[in-house]
């Protein structure tokens, strides 16, 4: 590719942005411009906690696993913004969604240590399952597993996963999700972790992968992508 010469204002803008930890990406004329429109459209309709670049990356990873056998999952759904993006790219493939939604909003102490950690971190900040169901009603093959993960995972224990999005914020939840999903990834599957550079997510990844060999791509916008070995990790259905 020919190097492009930037005008003086262009060079100034680029250097100013990079001093603030930002970069310019030229997406004009590529498919990514349509994806950016899609991200903006989804954000206009549904609260979305992902920035534009991680959202584009999410779409690309869902599409990249189109030929990998298995179902898709998202752990950490909140109002369904990222789930909606996944739905836009998944086609007819099954998507399993895991979140407590509003189920921890009473004062009960039931649910064990995972429930206590979720309650204490998110407090009253939860979306209602009924609202998320209605947000995703137009997409086929979407399945809700409402309650505290990993207890809710039993229903899909015999599944293989082609794509997993982890966005749980908490160390304990993320570690439980790695323990559940990683051995169930199909060869060539992708597991995308949001907030990858945050201390709790890093702690969970270090704990889980300390004694394992895995290809993990650390992206500069705090996403991490685990690429499942093409020979397939040991898993007996
Ligand atoms: C950051 S939000 C997800 C945001 C969403 N992916 C998006 O981009 O719009 C994290 C969610 O994880 C959920 N969560 C965290 N730990 C959980 C657990 N152990 N079981 C079920 N849900 C959990 C919280 O209820 C919260 O809704």
Kindly summarize this structure in a few lines:
With 237 residues, this protein is α/β, with parallel strands linked by helices. The protein contains eight helices and seven strands; from the N terminus they run αααβαβααββαβαββ.
Keywords:
7-stranded mixed β-sheet; Rossmann fold; alpha/beta; binds S-adenosylmethionine; 237 residues; single chain
Global shape: globular
DSSP strand content: 15-25%
Helix run count: 8
**Ions, cofactors, ligands: which are bound?**
S-adenosylmethionine
CATH class: Alpha Beta
Order of helices and strands: HHHEHEHHEEHEHEE
Radius of gyration: 19 Å
Strands in their spatial order, largest beta sheet: 3-2-1-4-5-7-6
Low-confidence stretches: none
Q: In terms of structural class, how would the helical and strand content be classed?
A: alpha/beta
In CATH, the architecture is 3-Layer(aba) Sandwich
End-to-end Cα distance, whole Å, is 47 Å
Biggest beta sheet summary? 7 strands, mixed
How would you sum up this structure, described in words?
38% of the residues lie in helices and 17% in strands. The chain has a single domain (51-227), classed as 3-Layer(aba) Sandwich (Rossmann fold), CATH 3.40.50.150. The chain contains eight helices and seven strands. A seven-stranded mixed β-sheet has the order 3-2-1-4-5-7-6, sandwiched between helices. By secondary structure, it is of the alpha/beta class. The model has no long low-confidence stretch (mean pLDDT 89). Residues 48-50, 76-79, 81-82, 98-100, 114, 118, 122, 126, 148-149, 167-170, 173 line the site of S-adenosylmethionine.
């Amino acid at each position: 590719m020919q190097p492009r010469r930037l005008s003086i204002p262009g060079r100034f803008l680029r250097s100013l942005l990079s001093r603030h930890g930002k970069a310019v990406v030229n997406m004009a004329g590529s498919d990514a411009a349509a994806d950016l429109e899609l991200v903006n459209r989804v954000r206009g309709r549904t609260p979305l906690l992902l920035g534009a670049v991680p959202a584009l990356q999410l779409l690309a990873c869902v599409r990249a696993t189109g030929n990998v056998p298995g179902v898709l999952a998202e752990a950490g759904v909140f109002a369904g913004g990222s789930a909606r993006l996944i739905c836009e790219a998944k086609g007819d493939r099954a998507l399993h969604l895991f979140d407590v939604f509003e189920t921890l909003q009473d004062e009960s102490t039931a649910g064990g240590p995972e429930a206590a950690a979720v309650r204490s971190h998110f407090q009253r900040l939860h979306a209602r399952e009924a609202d998320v169901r209605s947000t995703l009603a137009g997409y086929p093959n979407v399945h809700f597993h409402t309650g505290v993960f990993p207890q809710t995972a039993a229903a899909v224990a015999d599944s293989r996963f082609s794509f997993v999005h982890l966005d749980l914020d908490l160390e304990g939840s993320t570690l439980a999700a790695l323990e559940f999903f990683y051995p169930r990834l199909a060869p060539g599957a992708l597991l995308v972790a949001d907030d990858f550079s945050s201390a709790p997510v890093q702690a969970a990844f270090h704990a889980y992968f300390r004694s394992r060999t895995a290809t993990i791509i650390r992206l500069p916008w705090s996403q991490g992508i685990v690429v499942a070995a093409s020979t397939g990790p040991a898993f007996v259905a």
